[in-house]
Write a structure and sequence with these properties.
The protein is built from five helices and seven strands, in the order αβββαβαβαββα. It is of the alpha/beta class. The termini are far apart.
Length: 164
């Protein structure tokens, strides 16, 4: 049976359905590792009660590095204004993983960096491209940002403050 939509264009309906589906998505429990090799379970992002920012990046991704460097420049002042956690989740694989620690050290990034070596978390969340940033609160994804242009970090911070 074919239903005609007279008042709402099909693209709008599809967009609303996608928004409803993705807003209810939870972070799956995937094993990640910290830079010092400690195990970390991404399912822990669902139970914190405050906004948790997850930024997916890689050492070979220039926009990713630019985004994280610009966030790092403001990170201390952001932490004074808002109660949130921030994790940069590397998508580097076995060929490039050895570049992560030297890059993080060289950039003096203050936030926690985790390794998603097999891109399991990225795949479970159906993320296609990086940089990709999400905010999780109370187990739900409440914000998504794909790509990066200068100034996007301000939009991200507003979303963090709006969801405390």
């Amino acid at each position: 049976m074919l239903i005609k939509l007279k008042k709402a264009p099909l693209l709008l309906v599809i967009s609303l359905l996608f928004a409803a589906i993705t807003s209810a998505q939870q972070i799956p429990a995937i094993k990640l590792a910290s830079l010092d090799g400690a195990a970390f379970n991404s399912g822990d992002f669902n139970t914190n009660g405050k906004p948790i920012v997850l930024s997916f990046w890689a050492t070979w991704c220039i926009p990713c590095i630019n985004e994280l460097s610009n966030i790092n420049d403001k990170y201390d002042s952001w932490k004074k204004e808002a109660n949130f956690d921030f994790y940069a989740i590397s998508q580097d694989d076995s060929r490039t993983i050895k570049r992560v620690q030297p890059l993080v050290n060289g950039k003096n990034w203050d936030f926690t960096v985790l390794l998603d070596k097999n891109q399991d978390l990225k795949r479970e969340l159906n993320l296609m491209n990086i940089p990709y940033t999400i905010i999780v609160k109370d187990g739900k994804i409440i914000y998504r940002q794909s790509g990066y242009v200068l100034g996007d970090e301000e939009i991200l911070f507003k979303a963090i403050k709006d969801n405390q």
